[in-house]
């Protein structure tokens, strides 16, 4: 008060009480929680709720490497190989521990400000609790990849079925433009309605042009196209007199008009 220190009030909790709190979490929620002081000392654990043997002034906290809980003592040990759970659950704050025939997953987080060393708040559980989910996820990924491959294959097949008729129409149109009707083939139908209608219309047009070619010389058509490239040929009705004659060489002559 008024710049003078009158006293200090602090709140504290013993290691046994903190461990008892973690023990209650294990009983109520099934959480195997513990706290490490730094990386090598156990600060709180359900086994320490009623004290822990072998502690003294020299070693006020049990060492993590020799702790009674085998999962905690093996937390920093390297292990060979990877299980299916490790492929789906890994990171800087995840450890996988093998003990006997069982595998455990340890999740931890680091907090500071409570002592000279950081605290690691951790919990662990058996990996088989999530192994089934990991297997389902693995098969789901495989299924999605398979479906993606099948979808891509179907899309390529459909695209090819669309492209082939369009390509035939384009090639046929080029030949029609050059009046090479003898080289133009009928366009086969398609199971796509629009492409099938386009193919049928092209085939009908081709038949009509072939009939037209019988009576109108190709050279005459090409000449008219050269003389009138940008405008339509106007038609008209006229009364004419037709005389049928048989002139030698007239057919050849008319084809070259």
From TrEMBL:
Domain HAMP: 160-214
Coiled-coil spans in chain: none
One Gene Ontology term from the biological process aspect of the record: cyclic nucleotide biosynthetic process
Keyword Transferase: no
Keyword Ubl conjugation in annotation: no
Record's keyword terms, sorted: Membrane, Transmembrane, Transmembrane helix
Domain (Guanylate cyclase): residue spans on this chain: 241-257
Signal peptide annotation: none
A GO CC annotation given for this chain: membrane
Transmembrane segments: 139-159
Name of the protein in its database record: HAMP domain-containing protein
Organism: marine sediment metagenome
């Amino acid at each position: 008060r008024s710049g003078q220190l009158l006293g200090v009030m602090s709140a504290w909790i013993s290691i046994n009480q903190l461990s008892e709190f973690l023990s209650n979490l294990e009983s109520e929620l099934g959480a195997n929680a513990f706290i490490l002081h730094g990386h090598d000392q156990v600060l709180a654990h359900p086994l320490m709720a009623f004290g822990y043997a072998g502690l003294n002034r020299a070693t006020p906290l049990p060492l993590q490497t020799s702790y009674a809980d085998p999962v905690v003592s093996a937390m920093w040990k390297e292990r060979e190989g990877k299980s299916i759970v490790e492929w789906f659950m890994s990171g800087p704050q995840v450890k996988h521990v093998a003990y006997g025939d069982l595998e455990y997953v340890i999740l931890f987080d680091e907090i500071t400000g409570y002592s000279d060393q950081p605290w690691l708040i951790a919990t662990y559980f058996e990996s088989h609790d999530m192994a089934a989910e990991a297997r389902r996820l693995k098969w789901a990924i495989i299924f999605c990849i398979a479906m993606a491959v099948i979808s891509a294959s179907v899309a390529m097949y459909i695209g090819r079925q669309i492209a082939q008729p369009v390509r035939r129409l384009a090639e046929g149109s080029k030949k029609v433009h050059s009046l090479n009707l003898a080289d133009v083939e009928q366009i086969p139908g398609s199971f796509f309605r629009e492409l099938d209608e386009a193919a049928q219309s092209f085939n009908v047009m081709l038949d009509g042009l072939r009939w037209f070619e019988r009576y109108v010389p190709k050279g005459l058509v090409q000449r008219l196209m050269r003389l009138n490239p940008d405008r339509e040929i106007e038609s008209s009705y006229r009364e004419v007199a037709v005389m049928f004659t048989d002139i030698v060489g007239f057919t050849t002559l008319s084809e070259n008009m």
